Amino acid sequence: MAKSLSSLWLKSFRRLGRAQQAQGRRLLLSLVPKPARASAVRRVKPVTTSQPSQPSRLTKPVSKPLARPAAAAPGLPGSWQKAWFSVPAAGQLGPARRMLYWLYLPAGERLTPLPMVIMLHGCQQSAIDFAASTRMNQLAERKGFAVLYPQQSSAADSHRCWHWYKRDTQQGGGDVQLLAEMIAHVQRRHGLDSTRTYIAGLSAGAALATLVALHYPERIAALGVHSAPVFGTADSPISAYRAMQHGTRIAHIDAAHTLLQSQPQFPGMPAIILHGDRDAVVRRINGAQLAEQFKIVNAPYLGTAPPVLRSYVARTGGRNPHHGYTSASAYVGRKPHLVSCDITGLGHAWSGGADKLAFSAPEGPDASLMMWTFFARHRRPLAAQMPDLKPNGSSTQ
After folding, report:
1. Which bin fits 396, alpha (ψ -120 to 50), beta or left (φ > 0)?
2. Alpha helix (H) ranges present in 45-173?
3. Count of CB atoms within 10 A of residue 44's CB?
4. CA gap 131, 374 in Å, rounded
5. Tell me, what CATH number does 377's domain have?
6. Span 106-123, pLDDT tens digits
């Protein structure tokens, strides 16, 4: 199947230059998932736990630390923990669903529950790669929040790509559902603030972060996406590639309206969207169309006031060089509710990331700081946390 899909699309690239042809080949093949190895399937015994839990779509989860917590991130005094999260299959007789994650907890005494940022890596990255690239742990130590890094398995995908384009995932199942359960479990286990939970990602990770935020808005207070494709318009590697390279004509508008129809109680989702204008993997049109989608899903809260436009000049010298960029910010009261940033000269990389790492651009603006500054303005009030909803918007209660 993978070979036939690749052959079909690679024929259409012959009109392009050799560099574009090679890039297109790598991109399309990276979207075709590698089947999971048989050895990755495990049987588990029924699980019981004495910990109190909230209503759940899945059976009770287990998070098993791997020996002692790993050493803290280099130079940081906080705790850098590695653990597995797993849930038994339906009936607790089938293979378990398992996912590795890393968690950073800043040092110091906690007077109040910490907020948490979930960070989803892109293709060809691991959780550790993404933590090093974004330097989010360093920011968490300074600002006082926890950071959760789920990691896609190489058995599920040889490039560690999240399968955001699968139909079940687009509808709120698959990895979206598993991550929502992981988030709730980590919050309970470490006593984190469930009203201040934020999710962010790069590329495929940003696409999955979008779906988690939209299908589980009661658990996410704000969303940050970097180099993300539009949501709700893909259901295969081919359609995902087409969206990443060309966006859509009108399908993204329909997808946003469909989401609202499926979730009539949707409470809105504050979002910050960052995209480079030289991104050849997920083209800039995706950032513009994603902003249109979030205008629709947030329309009841944004009102009719036009967005505030700002322009920032590039800085080529000094200690903190950065690209020029423009932003459009829509406000609810005095809080920015939807921010879209177009970064000049940036390719497919985390803006302001660590030097000499893949998919990381050391020149600013600092995407991690921009996202946290935006997140810190938002909280999901307990009164606004809806009953445990299935992805189609129906209640399990």
Report:
1. alpha
2. 127-134, 136-143, 167-170
3. 17
4. 19
5. 3.40.50.1820
6. 999 888 999 999 999 999
